[in-house]
Amino acid sequence: MMGNEVLLSVRDLKRHFDLGKGATLKAVDGISFDIFKGETFGLVGESGCGKSTAGRTIMGLYNATDGEVVFQGKNVHTSKKEEKNKLIRGMQMIFQDPYASLNPRSTVLEIIAEPLEVHGIYKTKEEQKARVIELLESVGLNRDHANRYPHEFSGGQRQRIGIARALALNPDFIIADEPISALDVSVQASVVRLLQKLQKEKGLTYLFIAHDLSMVKYISNRIAVMYLGQIMELTTSKTLYEKPLHPYTEALLSAIPIPDPDIEEARERIILKGEIPSPINLPSGCVFHTRCPKAMAECALKSPRWTEHEPGHFVACHLYS
Q1: Cα–Cα distance for residue pair 102/269, rounded to 1 Å
Q2: Rg (Cα) of the chain, in Å, rounded?
Q3: In this structure, which of 53, 163, 214, 293 has its CB flanked by the most CB atoms within 10 Å?
Q4: How many CA atoms lie within 13 A of 56 on its CB side?
C-alpha cells in the first residue's frame, strides 16, 4: 500500500559523459522527483531519452555529475563506502536482458547466492542454499531449478531468476529497468503480475523504467515522462492517461493501440516530425520544440519552467507557464 513517506528523493540529478574534444553527452540533465514508500513509480520515454542512465545513476552504478539521490535519508553519492554498501543492500536492480545479466557459467544457485556471499549474510552453505530455494519458490520456480544453468531456461524463467537475485538481500526498493521489454508478449503480463504480488507480500517500492506506456499504466501509481534527459510531465497514472498536458505525452499516448477497431480507426494518431536530436547537441530552449506540433516562438528561446499545473500534476511546457 502506497503511503506518504518519501523513500527516495532525486534532486536536479545530472549524468553527463565527457566524450573528449569538448563534446559532452547529457544523458540525464537535471531531473527531480520523489518516490513514496510502497508505490510503483513509472519512468517512461522513447529509446535514448536517458531513463536507463537515470536508473543506474540513482542506484550508484554511475557517479552523478551533479544533484543528489537521497535514499532513506542518506545521500547515495556522498556516503562513505561502508554507509554506501548498507544503502545498496536496501536497493536492488532488475535488468532488461535476463540472459546478459546472468553469468552463463554459474548455476542458478550460485547466481542467486552471490549477493548473500558478498555481504556475508549466512554462516553456512546449507543456510545459504535454503534461502536460495525460498527465493526460487517466491518467484514461481522450484528447488530442482537450483542446479541448472541460465541457458536451460526460457526468457520469462530467466527474468524470474533475475528477480529472485534482486530479492536476495531483502531490499526495500527495486529499480526495474525495462524488465519485460526483452520478453514475449505472452510472458510479459505474468512477470508484471509476479512483481505486483511480491510488492504486496514484501512491501516493496519500485522504479519501473519502460518505453511501453500501456504496461506502465497497468503497474504504476505515478508516471514521469522523460525526453532527452529531462522530465516533461509527472502525475498519477490515471490523470496522465485521461488529461495529459504535454504535447510529447499526448503523442506517446496516441501511439497506444485501442482494442476497439471502430475507435482505433476513427481516432487521430499524432506523428512527431523529425528525429530525436542528439543528446550531445541539445536544441536551445525547450528540448522538445524541434518536434513539437504546438511549438511557439518562445519555445526555441528559453527552457520552460517546471510548474505544478494542478495539485500533483507537474509539467514543463510554455503552454502552461
Answers
A1: 39
A2: 21
A3: 163
A4: 15
Q: Is the dihedral of CA 131, 134, 140, 145 positive or negative?
A: positive
Each residue's pLDDT tens digit, 152-181: 999 999 999 999 999 999 999 999 999 988
DSSP alpha helices (H): ranges in the chain? 51-59, 81-89, 108-118, 125-138, 155-167, 185-202, 213-219, 237-242, 247-254, 261-266
For residues 216, 218, 219, 225, the Cα torsion angle rounded to the nearest 10 degrees is: 30
pLDDT tens digits, 118-143: 888 887 889 999 999 999 999 999 99
The 3-class secondary structure across 8-47, one letter per residue, is: EEEEEEEEEEEEECCEEEEEEEEEEEEEECCCEEEEECCC
Q: Residue 95: which of 144, 63, 59, 44 has the closest Cα? A: 59
Q: What is the pLDDT of residues 267-294, one digit of tens each?
A: 667 778 878 898 899 999 999 999 999 9
Which grid cell sits at 132? 536460495
Tell me how far CA of residue 205 lies from CA of 36, 86, 197, 217, in angstroms.
8, 17, 12, 16
* Exposed / middle / buried, residue 99 (Cβ in 10 Å: 0-12, 13-18, 19+): middle
Cα separation of 35 and 40, whole Å?
Answer: 8
